[in-house]
Amino acid sequence: MSTARTDISSYLYEPPGPRGRRRILVGSVVSALALLGLLAAGLWQFGSHGQLDADKWLPFTDWAIWQYLLVGLVGTLSAAAIVAVLGSALGIVLALGRISRVRGIRWASTVYIEVARTVPVLLLIYLMLFGLPQLGVNLPTLWKLVIPLVFANAAVFAEIVRAGILSLPKGQHEAAISLGLRGHQAMRLVVLPQALRNVTPSLVSQLVSLLKDTSLGYIVAFTELLYRAQVLSAFNHLLIQTFLVVTLIYLVVNGSLSALAFRLQRPGRKRTPVAQPVPTLAATMPHAEFPGTAAEANTASRPGAVTPAAVDAHASTTTEDRRD
Amino acid sequence: MNLLGDNLGLLLEALGTTLLMAVVAGIGSLILGVLVTVARVSPIPLLRRAAFLYVQFFINVPLLALLILAVFALPDAGLILPLTPTAIIVLTVYEAAYVAEAVRSGVNTVGVGQIEASRALGLTLGQSLRLVVVPQALRAVVQPLGNVMIALAMNTALAAAVGVVELTSRVNKINLVYAQPIEIFTGAGLVYMAIALVIGLGTGWVERKVAIVR
């Protein structure tokens, strides 16, 4: 299944023969030239405006500048941590609300999720920043950033968790009930732990998106990476260099998180204690009309398919795309 | 409703900017995203690597940082365009990475048998991609692509932070004059929700249209 899922292109063409190899070589050379040309054009453009001069880059060998930016990174990470904790807690509550048997709760959670998913965070931040102070509500800077982000991210977390709960075989819940657990015990002790473990990759990717969202601290003047970059560039007038360096920092931090998500997503990871439903069951699961379940049905129909990974794929295709 | 009446023209103009950015960047990112996906499954290792790096870069860097880089920093290197086109270009290349991710997950759902069959019929790589793989892949990801488009529509608001006068920026300015934050921001929120609803309904319609009955 790993070959089937991760590398469809191996089916698109067989090992190339002499002619194919020649074509690939030509293609490689052409695309290499095109990419190099693009790079050269960019560098020439930068160079001709003096942006590659050593004295524009040398300041970044100074530890003090890095220290200044790292304080910003700490701000970014702590804001992200607060949003992650509050957002996922609220998200779990909302996910449970959305599948609740009480119609009012179900309705309220659904409305919340749909609203929070479709209102730009920046609008909420402006409300916090300019709107509420007019009404006499003036929160500390950190919370002007964190509250809108929690508001928006909770909805995304809720959808991820719900996908996890729905993708779990019904038998888990039924077995828990038949063992004498009450409904909420079954949810807390049996269903939720497995569901959360199954959607861990999606949760980690959501962390990446949330960490990116904290860059909105730039607008509320909260001390985070992008805001520090802005202050720094106003001071040293090295706009391009400063923002490129900051982009690189984001890339490294988020890249490590993404790599973690990818590793968790790999099939055959060690901790998959989930009962694996037989392929036919997986293909007829109630939400099979959901987007992305084509993947599920497809992988499930292949011999030796392992469903938890397909479940991950399901969860990530349905929810990951709703991030930012 | 004096507030609305006095500012209707400004608001409609701002809404127009928002919609323009969303539509142009939406179409652009769909095209670019599919091209990136094609590069990602192509037999040329260099292109695959480049497409992978492209996606990873834009998925890991905040849109706001890119917007600031493009609007405030790149003019120092002589790269300067009017404000709104710059924002549209940044949105396009940024969302294209998410489109590429979605389409690639769709490519992975195309049955191996389909590809083998198209090869057995003697289609070339280009033909089997164009006639067999991509059409099926796109059908499988209509809903995820709709979600990307909704995210894009929400992300157009970020252009306000670099000075584009679109809906968010305009309502903020109006609120500074009228000081009725709850009404004004709720109204703007409803407009964004309506945009998302239209995209959502549109995706649902397209999905029903192109669904493959298996």
TrEMBL record, chain A:
<dbReference type="InterPro" id="IPR043429">
    <property type="entry name" value="ArtM/GltK/GlnP/TcyL/YhdX-like"/>
</dbReference>
<keyword id="KW-1003">Cell membrane</keyword>
<keyword id="KW-0813">Transport</keyword>
<keyword id="KW-1133">Transmembrane helix</keyword>
<feature type="transmembrane region" description="Helical">
    <location>
        <begin position="238"/>
        <end position="262"/>
    </location>
</feature>
<feature type="region of interest" description="Disordered">
    <location>
        <begin position="286"/>
        <end position="324"/>
    </location>
</feature>
<feature type="transmembrane region" description="Helical">
    <location>
        <begin position="24"/>
        <end position="46"/>
    </location>
</feature>
<feature type="transmembrane region" description="Helical">
    <location>
        <begin position="66"/>
        <end position="99"/>
    </location>
</feature>
<dbReference type="InterPro" id="IPR010065">
    <property type="entry name" value="AA_ABC_transptr_permease_3TM"/>
</dbReference>
<dbReference type="InterPro" id="IPR035906">
    <property type="entry name" value="MetI-like_sf"/>
</dbReference>
<comment type="similarity">
    <text>Belongs to the binding-protein-dependent transport system permease family.</text>
</comment>
<feature type="transmembrane region" description="Helical">
    <location>
        <begin position="111"/>
        <end position="130"/>
    </location>
</feature>
<dbReference type="InterPro" id="IPR000515">
    <property type="entry name" value="MetI-like"/>
</dbReference>
<keyword id="KW-0812">Transmembrane</keyword>
<feature type="domain" description="ABC transmembrane type-1">
    <location>
        <begin position="73"/>
        <end position="261"/>
    </location>
</feature>
<keyword id="KW-0472">Membrane</keyword>
<protein>
    <submittedName>
        <fullName>Amino acid ABC transporter permease</fullName>
    </submittedName>
</protein>
<dbReference type="Pfam" id="PF00528">
    <property type="entry name" value="BPD_transp_1"/>
</dbReference>
UniProtKB/TrEMBL annotation, chain B:
<feature type="domain" description="ABC transmembrane type-1">
    <location>
        <begin position="15"/>
        <end position="203"/>
    </location>
</feature>
<keyword id="KW-0472">Membrane</keyword>
<keyword id="KW-0812">Transmembrane</keyword>
<comment type="similarity">
    <text>Belongs to the binding-protein-dependent transport system permease family. HisMQ subfamily.</text>
</comment>
<dbReference type="InterPro" id="IPR010065">
    <property type="entry name" value="AA_ABC_transptr_permease_3TM"/>
</dbReference>
<feature type="transmembrane region" description="Helical">
    <location>
        <begin position="145"/>
        <end position="164"/>
    </location>
</feature>
<protein>
    <submittedName>
        <fullName>Amino acid ABC transporter permease</fullName>
    </submittedName>
</protein>
<feature type="transmembrane region" description="Helical">
    <location>
        <begin position="51"/>
        <end position="73"/>
    </location>
</feature>
<dbReference type="Pfam" id="PF00528">
    <property type="entry name" value="BPD_transp_1"/>
</dbReference>
<feature type="transmembrane region" description="Helical">
    <location>
        <begin position="184"/>
        <end position="206"/>
    </location>
</feature>
<dbReference type="InterPro" id="IPR043429">
    <property type="entry name" value="ArtM/GltK/GlnP/TcyL/YhdX-like"/>
</dbReference>
<keyword id="KW-0029">Amino-acid transport</keyword>
<keyword id="KW-1003">Cell membrane</keyword>
<dbReference type="InterPro" id="IPR035906">
    <property type="entry name" value="MetI-like_sf"/>
</dbReference>
<keyword id="KW-1133">Transmembrane helix</keyword>
<feature type="transmembrane region" description="Helical">
    <location>
        <begin position="20"/>
        <end position="39"/>
    </location>
</feature>
<keyword id="KW-0813">Transport</keyword>
<dbReference type="InterPro" id="IPR000515">
    <property type="entry name" value="MetI-like"/>
</dbReference>
<feature type="transmembrane region" description="Helical">
    <location>
        <begin position="79"/>
        <end position="100"/>
    </location>
</feature>
